[in-house]
Design a protein that fits this description.
The protein is an alpha+beta fold and 205 residues long. Helix content is 26%, strand content 32%. Strand 7 and strand 8 form a beta hairpin. It is flat.
């Protein structure tokens, strides 16, 4: 039954909220460790707790943000397995959640049913007329994180509209704006806030 309640909750419902979950506030405690997928994060159940991680020298890991060396997971049988942090969905360090995005891991800057994050991304341009054949450049990008699906919609009119499709009232109000106004960042973030107000974020107790 507990699993069924959480399936409904992740799908955007509120079934079992009182018994099985708590509304997110800034004081909510996330458990430290590595998330192999989005579901582990949403259940506040790291796939690999930080207590099970070791360095190459066998020392406990206390800060995943600065774990430049190899990481290993010690399972219940005492077996050591290499963990590639870059291949994970994200991690929680000292109660702060970081998501794999762009050039590394980005902190979720604004938590909500529609969260927001900013990150750096590096791209390469290929030009046969330049020495070396290519140039690289780094830009700052931003994305939403849809807590109902795990998707990362663009921070744009199209991105917010795709999420508002689940809320007929907000979608109608958004579509009523002039097209030029819908594309403005102020309008996009206004409807993000309104969506979050109408659709509170819940996590397991």
């Amino acid at each position: 039954m507990r699993k069924l309640l959480w399936i409904a909750l992740l799908a955007g419902g509120t079934v079992g909220v009182a018994q099985d979950s708590v509304r997110y506030t800034g004081g909510y405690v996330f458990h430290d460790g590595i998330y192999l997928d989005f579901a582990a994060f949403r259940h506040n159940a790291p796939s690999i707790p930080i207590s099970a991680l070791r360095t190459a020298q066998g020392q406990p890991v206390d800060d995943l943000r600065n774990s430049g060396e190899k990481l290993y997971f010690i399972d219940s049988a005492g077996q050591r397995t290499r963990v590639e942090l870059d291949g994970t969905w994200g991690f929680c360090n000292s109660g702060v959640v970081y998501v794999r995005a762009g050039n590394g891991f980005s902190r979720i800057g604004l938590m909500g049913s529609l969260a927001h994050l900013v990150y750096d991304a590096t791209y390469r341009n290929f030009d046969p007329y330049m020495m070396g054949g290519s140039t690289t450049y780094t830009v700052e990008e931003q994305r939403f994180l849809d807590m109902a699906t795990g998707a990362f919609p663009p921070v744009s009119a199209a991105g917010i509209r795709a999420v508002l499709a689940r809320d007929g009232l907000l979608l109608e109000e958004f579509d009523a704006l002039p097209k030029k106004q819908r594309k403005r960042p102020e309008a996009v973030f206004l409807f993000m806030r309104r969506y979050n107000d109408r659709h509170p974020l819940y996590f397991p107790k």
